[in-house]
Amino acid sequence: MFSSLLLLFLGLLALTKPLESSRRFKPQLLTEDEHFVAQVGDSVTLPCRVRNPGRRSIFWFKGDTAEGRELVMQLMSVKGNFLVTRQFQDSIRTGKLATAKTNLIINDLAPEDSASYTCSLAVAGQTVTHTLTVEGGRPQAPPLMLTALPTDGRVSVGEGFPATLSCVVTGSDAAVSWHKVGGGQVLSVGPIFNIYSVRRDDEGSYVCTADNGVSRPASFTFDLLVEYVDVEVDQTEIVASTDDLSALLSCTVKGSPAPLMSWYDSQGPIRQNDPRRRISSRGEFHYLQLTDMRPSDLGEYQCYGYNEKGRDRETIVVTAAPGPVRVLEAEPTGHGFTYRVSWEVNSLAPIGYYYFAYREMDSDLVLTTNVPGSQAPVSGSSTLYQSSTEVTLNSGQTYEIMVTPVSVNNKPGPTQEEAFRISVPLEPVEVAVATTNEDSWKWWKMSMTLLSRLPQVVRVMQD
Questions:
Q1: How is residue 373 annotated by DSSP?
Q2: Peptide bond preceding 150: is omega within 30 degrees of 0, i.e. cis?
Q3: pTM score > 0.85 for this model?
Q4: Model confidence over 388-423: pLDDT tens digits?
Q5: Which of 369, 345, 365, 373 lies closest to 357 in space, CA to CA?
Q6: Residue with the larger pLDDT of the pair 446 and 32
């Protein structure tokens, strides 16, 4: 700062108050005033030839009047170096300004370089002023003014809804174009940019650029935030375990802003404090653990996510497969070699039918039949089902029997770990037929009829 002020003081002193040289030969400025005309982008050399400069410094000024002139640089004629004021140092570094001895060179001319340039011989009070006119430049125009809506540039819109961005130019007829940050493609032309149905991948920054071909282009950046809710499930059907009467339901809930979620069954929202239905979450992952299940727990469940701008849900169907069958016995019926085979099974879901298969031990031929199931469990239980069927076997053979239950929703149970075996004797087994109440009633009526006729029989015998 001090050196700049010193240079300015010496330069002004050279222009206003010349001093008499004490030397025998006075310095003399040989160049005369001249008008230079150049084109934009060209270079021009402004001459300043000095005879007998001695130890005098030479100053270059820019400006039309003594009061309005700016000191550009000070040339030291003896050592050949020079000083440059701070505002012109960048021009020297970029090559915009240069010197050739005491001449000033201006490169890459621009319209703003049009001005008067004065070369001054320090102390001697001699000056030469050149006028430079640069032609072909674009006239300076006022900057473009943009009015953006929304003014803060932040737009939040729900997925599937429309979004409108506005960028209006005032005071000039300028073309407005739109592009997304990260993509060079022009998306739209005009002051209004519409997205009629916002998708999730539309989120990002959008720039409107106004250009009238004269002023420096102006731009404004909008930030578009897409608000959404997305619920996903890995499995739409869960088969509950009959062994421990449990099932685990899971879903993923994503969104912006962060959504809330709830679990629903056919009766409505599931309570957080239900001991048989435990709800838990870990970030965007949500779980519903069903324990100590009952047949009424089967059915549809919904994972429901929501925020201020959207909602989404997915349905999970909870079904159940029967457990393994336990064959209880195979009893002879008293009709030849026909046996009644009975079994039981636990199942949360009603049984549609049983797949009954049997074969002789020494044969590969498997005989099968479907036994109808039952819609209701045995009395006093909610999961125990019993059934039986009759099958005619060959005498003297040993059989293997396998029963597979199938629920009403076509979920088969596991196969038996071991087949049930029965050995058929060579002779049919006689079975005592118990007298039923109905047979007793018939016998009693017949007896009463005979007793009522007994007096008649006695009279006939007496006659």
A1: -
A2: yes
A3: no
A4: 999 999 999 999 999 999 999 899 999 888 999 999
A5: 369
A6: 32
Q: Which residue has the tokens 């009959």?
A: 242
Q: Band of the pLDDT at 438, cuts 50, 70, 90?
A: low
**Tokens encoding 429:** 């087994």
Q: Which of 52, 51, 61, 54 is nearest to 12 (CA)?
A: 61
Q: What is the pLDDT of residue 21?
A: 39
Angle at 21 between CA 16 and CA 25, to 5 degrees: 130
Q: Which residues have CB under 8 Å from 414's CB, separation 6+? A: 321, 323, 324, 404
- Rounded to whole angstroms, the Cα distance separating 361 from 417 reads 17
CB atoms within 10 A of CB 301: 22
Q: What span, in angstroms and rounded, lies between the C-alpha atoms of 209 and 192?
A: 12
Amino acid identity of 293? M
DSSP E strand stretches across 185-310: 186-189, 192-195, 204-211, 218-232, 237-240, 247-256, 260-265, 268-269, 277-282, 285-290, 299-306
Q: Which domains does the chain have, with CATH numbers?
A: 2-135 (2.60.40.10), 145-227 (2.60.40.10), 233-320 (2.60.40.10), 326-423 (2.60.40.10)
